[in-house]
TrEMBL record:
Catalytic reactions on record: tRNA(Glu) + L-glutamate + ATP = L-glutamyl-tRNA(Glu) + AMP + diphosphate
Broad class of where this protein is predominantly found: cytoplasm
A Gene Ontology term for the protein's cellular component: cytosol
Task performed by this protein: Catalyzes the attachment of glutamate to tRNA(Glu) in a two-step reaction: glutamate is first activated by ATP to form Glu-AMP and then transferred to the acceptor end of tRNA(Glu).
Domain named Glutamyl/glutaminyl-tRNA synthetase class Ib catalytic: residues: 1-318
Official protein name in the record: Glutamate--tRNA ligase
Binding-site residues for ATP, renumbered to this chain: 252
RNA sequence: GGUCCUAUCGUCUAGUGGUUAGGACGGCAGGUUCUCAUCCUGUAAACAUCGGUUCGAUUCCGAUUAGGAUCACCA
């Protein structure tokens, strides 16, 4: 049985795209092996909790299609799935380690620790707890019992080498002398990440821990915890981190990182997943575009790349354009309507315009940029048309004669007029495009005019005579 | 600074002990075209450096360099 999980911490406003990339692999590996994909909320740092962050994260994950088999929302056999609701469990396990002599109480103040750390750093030593409290456990325990002194529980790091295997990086060996006696239970009774993650992954029977490589340096601590408890190790898979163009870890200071940001500009969830799948992994047949189902079929942990890719929004947009182009018109219509649901666009009209712009937009948000003129007459023109009055009068009388208002007929009639007036097609159509759409860039003109209707087009041709340029 | 991870076109990547080192995005140049796109054709562009192993290394090993991550009562 394969069980994977993601363990987001609600310390941000939304899901980071890097987390989606990680979630995707976890999801795919679970589904591929007919296992379960779990979401567990790690909300043990109550000083950093962002109001509404958890709800937003869970909602975005659903929006993007990574549906959990077990989560705080849907529950499951190992509930609760929110660490703040499992405090008694961590306390029990932490105390068990103390009894076993694998952990110890510490009542050192933050001030002492800070002072010690800065002194060590000044001497260019590795900052480490000096184990002052380890020597006085008996007194400390009685002090805690009688006076209720604030205390933490620290993991006692054994001497020697820590070895573990990473599924994509192979064997990793770290000398224990480089590891600090990590606090595992904080003075507020909450566990630190290290205890919480090990206890929960064990209790929830997680088989594969697929997470960002930022966790690689603390994995030895987790290994020590597993060994202290006498538990079997899961398979560790540390995947590379997404980066900014300057190669630093992808961060919100330098790039948009929230998943909703991309979704809200009309990047389709399936395109985002497809793009993210290609970060640190490639399709065995070299395909760029593939569905989530196909990804699940061909994905394998052993093919995961170890170097860190740069997140490139340009290629993401290209890919999104590919998705938009391959969907049926009706499907795009519904996506556009949903995307602009606040604007309450006319459904029939949207449907007619889709074929004109499907090859022209990369994101759903490009739709109105191109098509707004279908819904309201342009308020201004990108080019000064004030000296073209006569020209538009001629176009007007030509088009007035068209009885069968179809793109083809309109086109023929206009071409004839252009010939007659001896105006280059490009110039001729550009002026008409401007007066009809207001813009230099638009969907195909004849087809647009057909959709707009004869009456409206004629109205727009005359409008130039009554309104000032560049204004209403 | 200590520890750990990483290194193929600008970017995402494929690949092999002997290849003209392949593809995609992006770029550039053409074609199609009433604009913009789409589509099509072509083109420039990479094995970080130095040693070693070997008949032969981009590929295996080591060092160097560079980049990254991490060193909290944060995750």
């Amino acid at each position: 049985m394969v069980r994977t999980r993601i363990a987001p911490s609600p310390t941000g406003a939304d899901v980071h795209v890097g987390s989606v990339a990680t979630a995707l692999m976890n999801y795919a590996w679970a589904k591929k092996n007919k296992g379960q994909f779990v979401i567990r909320i790690e909300d043990t740092d109550r000083t950093r909790i962002v109001e509404g962050g958890e709800a937003q994260m869970l909602s975005t994950l659903k929006r993007i299609g990574l549906i959990a088999d077990e989560s705080p929302e849907v529950g499951g056999p190992y509930a609760p799935y929110r660490q703040s609701e499992r405090l008694n469990i961590y306390k029990k396990y932490a105390e068990e380690l103390v009894v076993k002599g694998k952990a110890y109480y510490c009542i050192c103040t933050q001030e002492r620790l800070a002072k010690m750390r800065s002194e060590q750093q000044a001497k260019k030593q590795v900052p480490k707890y000096d184990r002052l409290c380890l020597a006085h456990q008996k007194e400390i325990i009685s002090k805690i019992k009688s006076e209720g002194v604030r205390h933490v529980i620290r993991l006692l790091i054994p001497e020697g080498q820590i070895k573990f295997n990473d599924a994509v990086r192979g064997e990793i060996i770290i000398d224990a002398k480089n590891i600090d006696d990590q606090v595992i239970l904080k003075s507020d009774g909450f566990p630190t990440y290290h205890l919480g993650v090990v206890v929960d992954d064990h209790l929830m029977k997680i088989t594969h821990i697929i997470r960002g490589e930022e966790w690689l340096p603390s994995t030895p601590k987790h290994v020590i915890l597993y060994q202290a408890f006498g538990w079997d190790l899961p398979t560790f898979v540390h995947i590379s981190l997404l980066r900014n163009p300057d190669k630093s870890k992808l961060s919100k200071r330098k790039n948009p990182v929230w998943t909703s940001y991309y979704l809200d500009q009309g990047i389709l969830p399936e395109a985002l997943l497809n793009y993210l799948a290609l970060m640190g992994w490639s399709h065995p047949e070299g395909k760029d575009i593939f569905s989530l189902d196909e990804y699940i079929k061909v994905f394998d942990i052993k093919d995961i790349q170890t170097s860190s890719p740069i997140f490139d929004p340009v290629k993401l947009e290209w890919m999104n354009g590919m998705y938009i182009r391959k969907y049926p018109v009706l499907s795009i219509k519904y996506k556009v309507l949903e995307f602009y649901k606040d604007k309450k666009l006319d459904e029939k009209l949207v449907e007619k315009t889709i074929p004109l712009i499907q090859d022209r937009i990369k994101k759903l948000s490009d739709y109105l940029t191109l098509c707004e003129f279908f819904f309201k007459t342009p308020k201004k023109y990108e080019v000064d048309l004030s000296n073209k009055k006569e020209f538009f009068e001629k176009v007007y009388s030509e088009l007035e004669k068209v009885t069968d208002w179809k793109a083809l007929v309109i086109g023929e009639s206009l071409i004839n007029l252009a010939k007659k007036l001896e105006i280059k097609n490009s110039q001729f159509f550009m002026d008409i495009r401007l007066v009809i759409t207001g813009k230099k860039i638009s969907p195909p003109l004849n087809e647009s005019m057909e959709i707009l209707g004869k009456e409206e087009c004629l109205k727009r041709l005359t409008r130039i005579q009554f309104f000032c340029i560049f204004s209403v």
